[in-house]
Amino acid sequence: MANPFVHVELQTQDPARAKAFYAGLFEWKLEDMPGIGYTMIGVGDGTGGGIMKHPVAGAPSQWLAYVLVDDVAAATKKAAALGARVVQDKTEVANYGWFSIVADPTGALLGLWQRRAARP
Question: Three-state DSSP class for 59?
């Protein structure tokens, strides 16, 4: 399928409490990434995700879905041309790829994700 959902991310003011809740509710493998304040969620089969401190102080917790794109800069530009507001422009995640976040014309947030090509 073209442009599948590839990652879902919980942005919360209380990551420790969220991790305890989801570890108890589901059989997810939670792996803290050293030094970056991010926890990867491994679900086995299906789309995994992450848990992080919400980047906006006092903002409510939210789940954010990411869609795979071939070129995050081009997809972000296209989304803007179609009426989206760019919340976070193309940003690199070292060794992994690039993302952006847009708000669609209805206000719903969506992440766009471009994987870094595998290195030989």
Answer: coil
The answer to whether residues 9 and 55 touch, using CB atoms and an 8 Å cutoff, is no
Per-residue pLDDT tens for 33-67?
Answer: 998 899 999 998 889 999 999 999 999 999 999 99
The Cα 90–Cα 98 span in angstroms is 6
Buried b (16+ CB within 10 A) or exposed e, 28-45: bebeeeeeeebbebeeee
String of b and e for 54-93 (b: at least 16 CB within 10 Å)?
Answer: beeeeeeeeebbbebbeebeebbbebeeeebeeeeebeee
93 - beta bridge partners? 97
What is each CA distance from 100 to 51, 87, 105, in whole angstroms? 17, 8, 16
Smallest CA-to-CA distance from 38 within 20, 50, 55, 21 is with 50
pTM for the structure as a whole: 0.90
